[in-house]
Amino acid sequence: MSQVSTAGRGSGTRGKEYLGLFSRYATIIGLLAMILAFSVLSPRAFPTVNNFTNVLNQASLTMIIAAGLTLAVIVGELDLSIGFAASLHGILVTGLIVSNKLPIPVAVIIVLAIGALIGWINGLIVTKIRVNSVIATLGVGTILTGLAFAYSAGVPIVAGVPEAFLQISLGRWLFGIPNNIIIMAVVLGGLWLLVERTSLGQEIQAVGGNPAAARLAGINVDRIKILGFIVSGVCSALTGILLASRLGSGTTSAADSYLMTAFAAVFLGSATLRDGEFHVLGTLVGALIIAFGFNGLNIFGAPTYSQYVLQGAILIIAVGLSSLGRFIAEN
């Protein structure tokens, strides 16, 4: 009887281990399998240096805004204002340059500061007024959309955008690598070091893991949560600036779609290498899966609606894998 029971427990343990391995590595295996499949099906167009560079360049803005969102999610909150904020920031930076004749560096710094301010406001509403982060950031995002229309009168700011501003996104100032890829690498590398290699990062993870225990340990939980929103706000502002530079204009809804893509990348990343934990490296993997998926669909001439179907399916699968990882870790 005891031998049967022991065998059953052993089998159950092995099953749990296999599920754990699957939940941690399924996304990476899926990414490699997708790249291999597309390479076999389209050997001339897909597996080329130019195409891979193009994928990274196109996905760089998603990675930046998703990396900022990751910090907010790590501390246990959600920021639904990021897409709307990025659209506003794109309008503001072009307006400051074109209408107010500000130097490009000054306009960029002002907009980044506004991004930090919006993140700070989100953090205060959530931590001090105790409004649920979903409601708070959705409300702030709606307000930002209204401000974007008020500032631009709903008309894209196109005329008079200087070439130097366009070159921020379109230029290749270092080793022929697109600037957006370099900026993305710096942002993700910096945030990874912050979260994984600093004492502040340990506090960030502690707050996300157990706010009550973190508070008892002497950590200022509200301060850490506000910091998470500020980082998310700055990354949203940077995304809006780079998108306006890429498009050569500021448009009221240009970055709205980044909200869903960023969330898909973050939740898909939480199922990567760790048991349902949000982390910057995982977000990078999640963003790559989405980017290569879209790229493959474009190469094979799939209709536009298929991208929305893929993105929605990825989000559902991502949340499922993340939940599976947490369930295994807790049991």
UniProtKB/TrEMBL annotation:
The chain crosses the membrane at residues 21-43, 55-75, 82-98, 104-126, 133-153, 173-195, 226-245, 257-273, 280-302, 308-329. Keywords: Cell membrane, Membrane, Transmembrane, Transmembrane helix. It is found in: Cell membrane. Its main location: membrane. CDD domains: TM_PBP1_transp_AraH_like. InterPro entries: ABC_transp_permease (IPR001851). It is a multi-pass membrane protein. PANTHER family: ABC TRANSPORTER PERMEASE PROTEIN YPHD-RELATED-RELATED (PTHR32196). This is Ribose ABC transporter permease. The gene is rbsC_4.
